[in-house]
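Quick entry, no commentary yet.
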Amino acid sequence: MKPTLLPIDECEEWIWDILDSTKDCGFEYIADGSRDFLIFNTNDFHADTKALYKIKRITGMRLVQMSTHGGNSQLWFYRPRNHHTQQHS
């Protein structure tokens, strides 16, 4: 049995909180067939290996790309879509 993962909107909240980002940030969500991507756009965040491990453990999402240009950063998180998602009642 595959592990049950959080719904994508809860992943956004966890990533926002773990990266300790409070200024000028937002998310984009892309579903690409068998993959979920959350793209985190910000100009202020804190990420270290502990934070990235915590994000992976809680949300099932991994950092797959990071870019910075003109003081703005974009972090791409990914997980396979062929997972069971928790349902809220």
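second:
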Amino acid sequence: MPRPEVLERLQSAEHEADDIVAKAENDRDERIAEARERAEEIRTDAEQEARELKERRLEEAREQIDDECERVLEEGKADREALVERAEERVDDVTDHVVSLFQEDVHAQT
């Protein structure tokens, strides 16, 4: 094969190799860009999911607190009613006792 033809084939092969390398570099850059976009999407989705989970947990906690508050209020109301009932039941006994003490004092003074 004549020398100019060999040189031409070598140059052609070099151009093909350069094209292949350029295409590979371009493909690499596109894949990196796509990977970065996908990573950003995943991060954004994860942040959104975290916000939603936080809101759900906060709402559940609020509901539990409200339930506990209601339970404590009901328990306090029942305790108050029981105390009032016991006090009312003792009014006669206390009245009798105070009258008795008063009578003792009156008798002691006479």
